[in-house]
Amino acid sequence: MPLVAGVDSSTQSCKVVIRDAETGALVRQGRAPHPGGTEVDPRAWWDALRAAVEAAGGLADVAAVSVAGQQHGMVCLDEAGEVVRPALLWNDTRSADAARDLVEEAGGDGTGRRFWAEATGSVPVASFTATKLRWLARHEPANADRVAAVCLPHDWLTWRLAGAPELTALRTDRGDASGTGYWSPRTGEYRLDLLERAFGRRVRVPAVLGPADPAGMLDPAALGGGAGAGAAGVLLGPGTGDNAAAALGVGAGPGDIVVSVGTSGTVFAVADAPAADPTGAVAGFADATGRFLPLVCTLNAARVLDAAAGMLRVGLDELAELALAAPPGADGLVMVPYLEGERTPNRPLATGSVHGLTPPNATAGHLARAAVEGMLCALADGLDALTAQGARADRVVLVGGGARSAAVRRIAPQVFGCPVVVPPPGEYVADGAARQAAWIALGGAAPPEWPFVDTREYAADPVPAVRARYAQARERTVDRLGGPEE
After folding, report:
1. Mean pLDDT, residues 240-266 taken together
2. Domain definitions of the chain by residue range
3. How is domain 250-423+455-485 classified at the architecture level of CATH?
């Protein structure tokens, strides 16, 4: 019974799970926090990874390790492999103007959108690595001049686990590469001309591995040596982005729409063909199995619940109770939850808004209900965008911290209009990385099947008025902000 390790280096923390490669049984786990902010020195991720590995009892008995990480983050290295500046994370919106310019430079009247969608599967937004490189070139030319290689958070951590050899040893996978803005899921190749268009010159990028290709071997000395650091012969998986890992972790298949309610909200499906949405709503990413992962991302998900709970001075459990005590539709009270800018629709400078406030609905319960429904409606817009691209929606698989809310679980089928399945709480990104590591360790043609227990299903009649009122309020918000949805 070989053991494997999966790592989730997320925005907020690093999680490590050790699982049985054949059955998926959890053996032990550990975690460590990351610093806050939208730019972080990557060395903080490395320190957290080492602490999480130690908390998980070390890697001395594992056969393989894979790292999943937050997508898009820009990690720039100089010729010596040193970090040039703190990494800009996916949720850093300072590159919004750069994203707009890259689209406009490719043509007006929708031509630029179509160009990027056909070239890379996605239309650039502030989250993407390419837009951050454009920002760096414009605003920090001295740092830009030092850049010899650019990689993503999971690429950098995997490289460090291998002992940080030459820059030529940087490795990534197709799932994470597809979020850069300069790799094509359709052709499976880099578009270095687009990297040059964004940054002004070409730099080294990681080699893109197949779903079950080893990225090298763990260097035990990288984790400090010692009995628990790791042994010789431990394989490193190619790793992937967090959303592709989550899909692998929950075992998503055709007909499943995965909705993850975390710091950000993501809605994605597993598909056999690449997506190319010129509206920019759907990002045409690749997945971690050789297929594709059309995805819609919002910046605001569980943070909406946190904000509402803070306003009402209650805990999240009490917020859920208040929401469930209020009627569907909250008697006309609607929240558009663009609390910290938004990515879909692309409104990086937006703020949240409440519509339809009247004396009868000016209660804590109505506001709690409006917050839950608003968050879910924003995600349901993403589901609609996926089905417009050909995805099937037989059921929704609901994961993430927000899925722990009883109100989210019970209201979700009313908003989504289909059954909602909630697996038991878990670290699905880390689990997906572990499942990839098991695939590497066992050498099979596909990832091992790991069964779930205690999965719950929720069903309810749809309440179309909730979506309709939200759509009206959303359009008023978009009109107020002005400009096209980029």
Report:
1. 91
2. 3-242, 250-423+455-485
3. 2-Layer Sandwich (3.30)
What does the DSSP assignment read for 356-380? ---TTT-SHHHHHHHHHHHHHHHHH
Residues 6+ apart with CB under 8 A from 269: 252, 256, 257, 258, 293, 294, 386, 391, 392, 393
Q: What is the mean pLDDT of residues 26-55?
A: 96
Question: Which of 369-373, 443-447, 462-466, 480-484 is predicted with the least confidence, judged by mean pLDDT?
Answer: 480-484
389 is in an annotated binding site: no
Residues 94-148 pLDDT 10s: 999 999 999 999 998 889 999 999 999 999 999 999 999 999 999 999 999 999 9
12 is annotated as contributing to ligand binding: no
214: Cβ–Cβ under 8 A, 6 or more apart, which residues?
A: 64, 235, 236, 237, 238, 440
DSSP state of 57: T
Are the folds of 3-242 and 250-423+455-485 the same? Answer: yes
Distances (CA, A) of 193 to 130, 145, 189: 11, 18, 12
**Would you please indicate which residues are annotated as catalytic (active-site) residues?**
242
CA trace torsion 447, 448, 453, 455 (10° rounding): 20
| CATH superfamily of this structure's domain 3-242 | ATPase, nucleotide binding domain (3.30.420.40)
Q: Give the three-class secondary structure for 408.
A: helix
What Å distances lie between residue 427 and 9, 30, 72, 401, CA to CA? 11, 11, 20, 10
Q: How far is CA 233 from CA 61, 64, 165, 230, 398, in A?
A: 11, 9, 17, 9, 37
Distance of CA 49 to the CA centre of its chain: 19
Supply angle C-alpha 149, 154, 157, rounded to 5: 80
pLDDT value for 345:
82
Which has the closest alpha carbon to 267: 277, 255, 259, 275? Answer: 259
Question: In angstroms, what is the C-alpha Rg of the chain?
Answer: 22
> What count of other Cβ atoms lies within 10 Å of the Cβ of residue 248?
31
Of 276, 273, 279, 241, the C-alpha closest to 260 is 241
pTM of the shown model: 0.87
Residue-wise pLDDT tens digits, 349-377: 888 999 999 999 999 999 999 999 999 99
Residue 431, C-beta contacts closer than 8 angstroms, at least 6 positions apart: 6, 17, 19, 24, 245, 248, 249, 450
Which one-letter amino acid corresponds to residue 149? A
